[in-house]
Write a structure and sequence with these properties.
Blueprint: H1 7-28, H2 33-53, H3 65-94, H4 98-103, E1 110-111, E2 117-118, H5 120-143, H6 148-156, H7 158-177, H8 183-188, H9 194-207, H10 212-217, H11 219-231
Helix pairs in contact: 1-2, 1-3, 2-5, 3-5, 5-7, 6-7, 6-11, 9-11
Organism: Hyaloscypha hepaticicola
Protein name: Fungal N-terminal domain-containing protein
């Protein structure tokens, strides 16, 4: 079942995140990195739940709320998929006897939903990426209006519209892999280095399925959007 948009869907998602926090505390300890990342995600989801419940939220507007809802639904579905996988692992581990837990390694590789093999350290990165992506979404939402480049990419539709969402996700992924740097710091480090922008984001966009030809054609737009994210 795909993720819906009713407030109840976000309540359930927030509760799932809280279950993961509790199970992680039991399995790993309150100060473990996994517990910390799950707690951060739970906090962001609570913030999201409040935003969705507001009758005057930008998400409730008919003019530009539809696209934002679609983007949020995708982010939320990705988040739910990771949380469900992690919750199953932790519950299974916590159900073991104390004796078995003492000799069973929690950090073994597990099969993710799409068949990808990941260990829990990699799942932690996925949790952190969801946290960063949802935080970025909420921060842009709170600004209220779109940036100049963002508005252009949205108005063009098609590949550019999808590329903007991918750039947000790539930014979140970079943030998750360098959590101490902070969202703004990661983006502003590229401010004086066009080559760094192009190398890193081009590589990730190709992984997302965008062709080299398309990226070359819209190189300046991509750079402009990354700079815009860093300044907002």
């Amino acid at each position: 079942m795909s993720f819906g948009y009713a407030i109840g869907d976000f309540v359930v998602l927030t509760q799932l995140a809280w279950d993961v926090v509790q199970n992680s505390r039991k399995a790993c300890g309150a100060h473990d990195e996994l517990t910390s990342e799950a707690t951060s995600l739970h906090i962001v989801l609570r913030r999201l739940e409040i935003e969705v419940s507001k009758p005057n939220s930008i998400l409730a507007r008919s003019d530009d709320g539809t696209d934002r809802k679609e983007e949020l639904a995708q982010l939320s579905e990705d988040c739910r998929r990771v949380l469900r996988t992690l919750d199953k692992i932790l519950k299974k581990y916590n159900a073991l006897s104390e004796e078995k837990r003492s000799v069973t390694k929690l950090w073994k590789k597990v099969q993710f939903g799409n068949g990808e093999m990941l260990d829990l350290a990699e799942l932690r990165i996925k949790i952190a990426t969801s946290t960063s992506a949802l935080t970025l979404f909420l921060n842009l939402l709170s600004i209220g209006s779109q940036g100049k480049v963002e508005s252009y990419m949205e108005s063009q539709g098609g590949a550019l519209k999808e590329m903007r969402r991918s750039l947000n996700w790539i930014t979140a992924s970079m943030q998750a892999k360098a959590p101490r740097a902070g969202e703004g710091s990661i983006l502003t480090t590229y401010a004086g280095d066009d080559k760094a922008i192009w190398k890193d984001f081009r590589r990730e966009l190709i992984r997302e399925g965008f062709s080299s030809e398309l990226l070359e054609r819209h190189m300046e737009t991509i750079k402009g959007y990354v700079m815009e994210l860093g300044s907002r």
